[in-house]
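Archive entry. Fields below.
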Amino acid sequence: MNQDEELKQIIRAVIHPTPDLEPRSDLWPRMSQRISSGRRWNSWDWAALAVMTAATAAFPGSLALILFSL
Amino acid sequence: MDQLEKRFSQGDLAAFEEIFHARQNEVYRWILRIVRDPVAAEDLTIETFWRAYRAARRYDPQRSLTAWLRTIASNLARTHVGRQRPELAMDHLARYATVSGRTDLSEEQRRALLCAFQKLPEKLLSVAVLAFVEELSYAEIGEALSISVGAVKTRAFRALRQLRKELTKEGFGP
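PREDICTED_STRUCTURE:
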């Protein structure tokens, strides 16, 4: 047996393949919740809007830059 | 073209739910093969479907949905593996290794191999786990990781070389 094959055999002996597991429960309720929360604005969205509004008010010239980067 | 996949690509939530129920286990198992952590695999399964849902309108129904989901899942799983702490990675690698077919390996040898595995860069680690532990074909690995079969072979070769080097350094190694 060559060295590569021997090493592969050792790997298989030490690290076993994952069994055919399933999630502990149906993941749809969590998925559904994620979809609902994704549709609402989160705190980061509001913070980004606040920063952009402040930047535009303080430096009106930055509006073009913000629009360009969107 | 599958009607369900077409409806999904048009942003139909009911179609998405149907696809989710039909494929959540398959996506979960695929992620578990890479991350080897059942809890993280659940989170990453949801993240995979969330990204798929958001990108639904960019999905081409002519393309295999399985392959598309697997690509998203693989990218997320690999990022997760790349970010996890080394000691945690070692626990996850050893997770399903409670019974061994080979009794001639000492505890030190097992430890050294896990340690050498955990030191592999993420690019090599994912390929090594999928090729040598899960024994998937190079073609299947290449498709899931969006790399060529040649690249899979190269990474597998480099992974073996690095593992052997590490094991030799520890005084073991074939």
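CURATOR_NOTE: Chain B touches chain A through 47 residues (CB under 8 Å).
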